[in-house]
Amino acid sequence: MDIAYIPSPSTGVIHLGPIPLRGYAFCIIIGVFVAVWLGNRRWIARGGKPGTVADIAVWAVPFGLVGGRLYHVITDYQLYFGEGRNWVDAFKIWEGGLGIWGAIALGAVGAWIGCRLRGIPLPAWADALAPGIALAQACGRWGNWFNQELYGRATDLPWAVEITAGPNRDAGTYHPTFLYESLWCIGVAFLVIWADRRFTLGHGRAFALYVAAYCVGRGWIEYMRVDEAHHILGLRLNVWTSIVVFILAVVYFVLSAKLRPGRETVVEPDASGGKGGDAKATEAETGDEPSDTSETKAKVEASVLTKGEPAKADLRKPQRTEDDTTPESDTP
Questions:
Q1: Of 31, 85, 86, 191, which has the most beta carbons under 10 Å away?
Q2: CB-neighbour burial class of residue 113 (10 A; exposed 0-12, middle 13-18, buried 19+)
Q3: E strand or H helix that includes residue 231
Q4: Helix/strand/coil (H, E, C) string of 2-59?
Q5: Which residues contact 65 (CB under 8 A, 6 or more apart)?
Q6: Phi/psi of residue 210, each to 5°?
Q7: If DSSP codes are grouped into helix, strand and coil, which group holds residue 330?
Q8: Beta-carbon neighbour count of residue 276 at 10 Å?
Q9: Using one digit for the tens of pLDDT, what is the confidence trace for 16-63?
Q10: Nearest alpha-carbon partner for 268 in 124, 154, 161
């Protein structure tokens, strides 16, 4: 009996003349644009300047791609340096293989460099970008669908994904773990947005929430996968990584809430005087105006020196001039 299933693409690449257009690459590119777009909106809402998120992403994205590939190659080195393997394949990123842990870790280094150049606190930038990163992962996971990879155990569920026969895989219908993770990441994005509005998260706590929530989902989804992986005490390596990173994210969230409660009031220096949008909004709400005491004092002093008048005049009595020769009293 025929069963329902999600068909897989017959190929993950189409050619436009001599130029190959790969579905995996398109999914990553779309994810980057979504992350930058949403991050820019959130950054402006926090008082930052338009375009800052994109400027820092120019540093973060290349670092993240290198970090993601390095993590994958190191943790699955047998695929590239084992017997009968070609180490040159380690550079073929378009064939799939990016580890999110390495992408986030090295991407954070690139973001730190960009933030340092702009005088921006990295935690504030990460908070603004957190839900966008989750949505970028949701988009990127569909690249695994084009490559027919990252699927789970065999199943006859209506949403099973069809996998055709190929190197290191058997034809059949399997759990679409790439789809599960994509949907989970969308849920994480909405969770972070809601929690950020509800609890006014700041100082990196929105990003920590994203990391912790993602790790929860990655743990059970990783457990369903059947592709080759290293195991430690019966668990896949990425399950252990999820557990460790989850604990670190929770610890950071708790300590940050105690040591630095609330949210940053200024996230980006302003060209007109070093105040971000949040500080200006606070002045508008409270009715406070910036103090120009020193400038006003300088103008008064300059005016006094120009006119040759004393700095302090008794305004209660009229002042005598040089033409005034009338004595104070004319009475005999």
A1: 31
A2: middle
A3: strand 231-232
A4: CCCCECCCCCCEEEECCEEEEHHHHHHHHHHHHHHHHHHHHHHHCCCCCCHHHHHHHH
A5: 93, 98, 103
A6: -60, -45
A7: coil
A8: 20
A9: 778 888 888 899 999 999 999 999 999 999 999 999 999 999 999 999
A10: 124
For residue 278, give the nearest of 90, 55, 46 by alpha carbon.
46
Give the H/E segment covering residue 294.
Answer: helix 293-307
Q: How far apart are CA 69 and CA 140, in angstroms?
A: 14
Output the six-digit token pair for 120: 């921006």
Please report, as a single letter, which amino acid is at residue 193.
I
Cα 103 to Cα 110: distance, rounded to the nearest angstrom: 10
Phi, psi angles (nearest 5°) of residue 155: -155, 160
Average pLDDT, rounded, for the chain: 82
Nearest-5° angle of CA 133, CA 139, CA 140? Answer: 85
- The reported pTM is 0.77
Cα gap 138→27, rounded to integer Å: 9
271 exposed, middle or buried (CB, 10 Å; 0-12, 13-18, 19+)? exposed
Give per-residue pLDDT as tens, 170-228: 899 999 999 999 999 999 999 999 999 999 999 999 999 999 999 999 999 998 988 88
